[in-house]
Amino acid sequence: MLRYSNATFYGNMDTSPMWLWWNPYNTTYPDQFEEVLSRLLDRLREQAADGGSLRKVAAGTESGPAFQDIFALQQCTPDLTKEECSNCLINAKSNIPANCDGKRGCRVISPSCTLRFEIAVKRLSKDSGQGKEKLLIYELVQNASLDHFIFDKRCPLDWERRYKIIGGIPRGILYLHEDSRLKIIHRDLKPSNILLDTEMNPKIADFGTARLFGQDETQGNTSRIVGTYGYMPPEYMIHGQFSIKSDVFSFGVLVLEIISGCKRNNFRSGDVEDLLSFAWKNWREGTAASVVDPGLRSGSGSMSEMLRCMHIGLLCVQEKAAERPTMASVVIMLSSASISLAVPSEPAFYSSGGYTPRRSNYNSRELESINTRQSPASAADQSDHSSNNEVSITDLHPR
Predict the structure, then answer these.
(1) Which CATH number does the domain 19-137 belong to among 3.30.430.20, 3.30.1490.20, 3.30.470.10, 3.40.50.1100?
(2) Averaged over 84-97, what is the pLDDT?
(3) Residue 249's closest CA among 267, 235, 269, 270?
(4) Is domain 147-387 annotated with CATH 1.10.150.20?
(5) Angstrom distances, CA of residue 232 to CA of 236, 250, 252, 367
(6) Where does the chain hold its CATH 1.10.510.10 domain(s)?
(7) Fewer CB within 10 Å, N side or C side of the chain?
(8) Known catalytic residue: 188?
(9) Catalytic one among 188, 247, 293, 384?
């Protein structure tokens, strides 16, 4: 929610003006739908109003008619009192019958609160000539994405929850790599693409850059680099080669970000401008604890677990893909503290402009290619599909 004004409005409940939008399609069973919806909105209103001075928001679902879930979200500006927030949302709900009665979805917005409900269905085709449609049913993930928690000091995560997330992500990646009918390489794993449900279980999202492999395929090549700088392995940025080890590298970066609470692409500590460099330097010098988020150092979490996870993260970001573990090995290493870990080699380093390899490992032609890719002017001329920020850029390929 965003609001600005030339008059003071903090601490005042405003319900006017009010805007409404609604889904043009009607529900199949309006009476049952309205009954379930009313119960859901009343429950969420109480939860939102009970929120503290930093956040008054609640989201949830109820099983509706015809085995369809109804998703809803309610939010007040946090400067309101509990009673004011409740009254604002009651007022918003009272506008539903006159404007959104029988509709599958509706959104009500006022200056002090907002309300929304829908059936989370995405139509793949606007028109269906034979009466059949393809629909995507989405799960509502109430806690948004991981980056909102590890990089926002106002919503800190304790070690227990971070450890749970670190353990959950590789199980999802392992499914993509080995248990799915087709091997799937995600190619854009990063905090904003890890969604969290009400129990803080991680869900891997945004498969716009994913590539499918046959069971016998181990590596792919491309001349069009897609993804986000800082999470791409060097062999992908330099040669366009990607494999399951590409996702392993991205996971290693994620682990170091979760432990440190620092963004990979926006890090600086003294003369070090790279999180991987900082983690490697401190691990090698025996001061790895200084990489850990200060909020965790003073908490009740196990420092030995944190350092072990950092060790695993460093194994995943090694420069040579062959030296990185598989995701199956990562799952085993995280599930048992008794398994000894290999000594990691020096990781691939990045500068603020992109990947910076060790000169001894690459010839002059490769270095020239790297410098060309990192040039802003060149990137603009070639319409580079990589992203310097947290936004994914999707490159569509026929499946």
Answers:
(1) 3.30.430.20
(2) 94
(3) 235
(4) no
(5) 7, 6, 11, 17
(6) 147-387
(7) C
(8) yes
(9) 188
